[in-house]
Each structure stands twice: as C-alpha cells, then as structure tokens.
C-alpha cells in the first residue's frame, strides 16, 4: 500500500436526514471499491494505490450530487509514500477499539 486518504463529504442540503442519506450513498460507493476502509464519525479512511484513491475522491463528489446534493464540499487528507510504507488503518486505530 502506497497511500491512504481520509475524506469527509459535506452535502449542502436542508436536513440532517438528507445529509445522512447522501453520505450513506457515498460510503456504499467506497465499500463497493473493495479497498480497506474505516468509517469514523466525521470522515472515512481508505487505503490503496494513490491513483485509485484519487479517482475515488473525485467520484465521491459525483455520487453525492447524483444522490441529490445540489452542491458538495469535501475535506480530504492524503498520506502518500511512493515506496510504500504508509501507516495502515489497523496500526492507527485497532488498539483503541478492543
């Protein structure tokens, strides 16, 4: 694994229920990629190859708009190491969830 991203998708909609529905569709898309991911209360982390992750980040915006958001903002954190060796989700959080 050469990269990890954390993405928070913020659909600009009128109700919390709509935010949750649209974000759930984005998370379903992330799940469908088959990559390792972790859903947190404010963002979702995904591990994989850099180019693939950048495509997923881009597609998350399109998924939110297709789901009904007239506008969407996103916060993205990227950890990239061309030679590999990025800290994994498991190394970062497993000890806190036992």
UniProtKB/TrEMBL annotation:
Give the GO cellular component terms, alphabetically. cytosol
Q: Which Pfam families match?
A: Thiamine_BP
- Organism superkingdom: Bacteria
Q: Which residues form a coiled coil?
A: none
Q: Which SUPFAM superfamilies match?
A: MTH1187/YkoF-like
Q: Where is the Thiamine-binding protein domain?
A: 5-96
Q: Which family does it belong to?
A: Belongs to the UPF0045 family.
The protein's name is Uncharacterized conserved protein YqgV, UPF0045/DUF77 family
Q: What is the lineage of its organism?
A: Bacteria, Bacillati, Bacillota, Clostridia, Lachnospirales
